């Protein structure tokens, strides 16, 4: 996405987040966010990070700019994560509808399994994620990730813990597939040594 267009587009999401959190001086805060994001897009950091086809750096940087603005107001990480996530509710609702449809299909685990296989291949190809291992069987996908460029981007700006916003995406996506899929996240890179996940066919899962 063109950065000027991105600044306007993500400004709408930030305004929505501020409105839902009952902030005052919203237009002033919006302008500060847009100025920060414009500077971030013009940075050498953005040029270095905007090279991975599987990561939308314009989107990631917009979220980071929101986090940095909210952090400057003194909000804690959990508070920032909640505020930012609420701003993107409408964007995520479209994807939730797709997930809800997949959930009713009898082969929803196989679909999730294929998603993981395809994503793994693309991430390895462009180098955006480093896997310690990635194993697939008929009934399970298990992997451990030791480096992720999402986390590295947040780390560059000293807000690694706030990458939880993106780490949580898998959690709510799989939460929408309860009929045939069990998702277990043992740890993630926002606050741990690795992203270690298991995606299991529900009928084979032993709690």
Q: Count of helical segments?
A: 9
Strand order of the largest sheet: 1-2-4-3
Order of helices and strands: HHHHHHHEEHHEE
Helix content: 55-70%
Distance between the termini: 44 Å
**What does the main sheet amount to?**
4 strands, antiparallel
Annotate the secondary structure layout.
Blueprint lengths: L2 H18 L5 H16 L2 H6 L7 H16 L4 H11 L1 H15 L4 H19 L2 E8 L3 E9 H8 L7 H12 L5 E7 L7 E7 L6
Antiparallel strand pairs: 1-2, 2-4, 3-4
Helix pairs in contact: 1-2, 1-4, 1-5, 2-4, 4-5
Could you walk me through the main structural features you see in this protein, from its secondary elements to its overall organization?
- 58% of the residues lie in helices and 15% in strands.
- With 207 residues, it is of the alpha+beta class.
- The chain has helices at 3-20, 26-41, 44-49, 57-72, 77-87, 89-103, 108-126, 149-156, 164-175; strands at residues 129-136, 140-148, 181-187, 195-201.
- It is built from 9 helices and 4 strands, in the order H-H-H-H-H-H-H-E-E-H-H-E-E.
- Strands 1-2-4-3 form a 4-stranded antiparallel β-sheet.
- A hairpin with a 7-residue loop joins strand 3 (181-187) and strand 4.
């Amino acid at each position: 996405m063109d950065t000027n267009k991105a600044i306007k587009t993500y400004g709408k999401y930030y305004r929505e987040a501020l409105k839902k959190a009952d902030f005052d001086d919203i237009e002033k805060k919006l302008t500060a966010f847009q100025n920060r994001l414009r500077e971030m897009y013009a940075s050498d950091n953005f040029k270095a990070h905007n090279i991975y086809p599987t990561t939308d750096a314009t989107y990631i940087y917009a979220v980071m700019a929101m986090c940095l603005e909210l952090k400057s107001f003194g909000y804690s990480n959990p508070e920032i994560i909640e505020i930012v996530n609420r701003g993107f509710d409408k964007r995520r609702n479209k994807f939730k509808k797709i997930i809800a449809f997949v959930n009713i299909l009898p082969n929803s685990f196989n679909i999730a399994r294929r998603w993981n296989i395809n994503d793994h291949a693309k991430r390895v190809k462009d180098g955006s994620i480093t896997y310690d291992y990635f194993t697939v069987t008929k009934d399970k996908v298990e992997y451990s990730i030791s480096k992720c460029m999402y986390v590295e981007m947040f780390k560059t700006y000293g807000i690694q813990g706030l990458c939880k916003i993106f780490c949580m995406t898998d959690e709510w996506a799989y939460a929408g597939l309860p009929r045939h899929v069990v998702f277990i996240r043992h740890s993630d890179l926002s606050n741990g040594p690795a992203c270690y996940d298991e995606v299991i066919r529900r009928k084979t899962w032993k709690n």
